[in-house]
Amino acid sequence: xxLIIDDDLAIRTSLALLLKSNGFQVKGAASPDDALKILQTxxxxxxxxxxxxxxxxxxxxxxALLSRIRKHNPAIPVILITGWGTIDLAVQGMKLGAKDxxxxxxxNDYLLQSVNTILNLGQPDxxxxxxxxxxxxxxxxxxxxxxxxxxxxxxxxxxxxxTDAPVLITGESGTGKELIAEAIHANSKRKLRPFVKVNLGxxxxxxxxxxxxxxxxxxxxDAKTDREGRFEMAxxxxxxxxxxxxxxxxxxxxxxxxxxxxxxxxxxxxxxxVVDVRVICATNRNLEEMVAQGTFREDLYYRINxxxxxxxxxxxxxxxxxxLADFFINNLKVIYQRPExxxxxxxxxxxxxxxxxxxxxxxxxxxxxxxxxSTNDMLDVEDFQLSMNTGNTSSRNSNLPEVGALTxxxxxxxxxxxxxxxxxxxxSKVARSLGITRFALYRRLEKYGITYESDEL
Length: 457
Description:
- GO terms for molecular function: ATP binding; sequence-specific DNA binding.
- This protein is of the alpha/beta class.
- The protein has three domains: about 1-120, Response regulator (Rossmann fold); about 130-310, P-loop containing nucleotide triphosphate hydrolases (Rossmann fold, 3-Layer(aba) Sandwich), CATH 3.40.50.300; about 315-445, no CATH class.
- Helix content is about 45%, strand content about 10%.
- It contains 20 helices and 14 strands.
- The strands form four sheets. The chain has a five-stranded parallel beta sheet with strand order 2-1-3-4-5, with helices on both faces. A five-stranded parallel beta sheet has the order 7-8-11-6-12. It has a two-stranded antiparallel ribbon with strand order 9-10.
- Mean pLDDT is about 85; it is low at about 125-130 and about 390-400.
């Protein structure tokens, strides 16, 4: 049973009709006293609570009722209903334990999405032995590891993916946040729709609206034609907002509006457009600290982190380092046609002891550079040490460039070019051999201006 607490009969009736038509049992309460009487005899699965009642518009009565509900039974999830002008109240409610907030006028699909997500995530966890096998139920092709921390994360990702809940992925640089975002999309109902990545750290505040919402012809001097924004590109799919912690306060307000109202206006246009997107955000910064410092909006923080996935640093799951190194080496075997390439046991142990502040990305670069600079098929500790020592690499193989002669981008370009030639431009095979997703490969092909024919979309 779901409990609707609102003094407005029209709102209670409207919500009840919506929820009943979607299979829920519903009860209504017109006042805090009515709600508390119901709670004395019944335990609802979820409560929809309006913050303002007829006798007060400050929200104090709604907040007081929320506090009493939390004391009475903190396990009951609560969704707050508020107007745009009182979102600050909703944020206070989230601090008191509310799960989400919906603004009036609400969108039926979004409200149902929030209700279903919270109810689904409230189901009890599977037994630990079953949880460890969760990865086999989902598509995690490019996520390598057996560490219990990672398996717990993948189990959570699998459960969250089938909902439309907003997800915040946190963790140090190089821990695989983009791969987790892509895994959420690949296991969702939107998997056949676009996955659009936006690196917010690379967009200036002056270009924010144009990049994310698009613009119409003549919106500014260089706007020669209409341009589709990233949100419109992601319609009915997923938008991945990477490095959200780099967004300035002015842009944060504009983003919050879109996430809340699900509408936007292209720059230079007065016509609103409705957008249906699943939002996944990522950051390597501490957003809670930024909120405390006033550099990140509290209301935006609570809007994007209904579900938070905290990725461990690679040093916290060092047992996965040899697995990752083997994975990278197996991909490089194909690219360089060196089928005998292997990682020695001493080298695997040595790699596990590295600090690897750059995490998976740093490990991948170390392995790639060692394969490039070593002529040995059995990669040993000495091979890795020499590849990381710029003074000794030239004596290792005079036919290969010294470290520093090529940038990592130039090496990446050469590896992609060789892989494309070897696999006859088959994008799926090239992506698998390089250990990246098709989405990541497409971006690199565009970055380096390498022509290709998409073999599946």
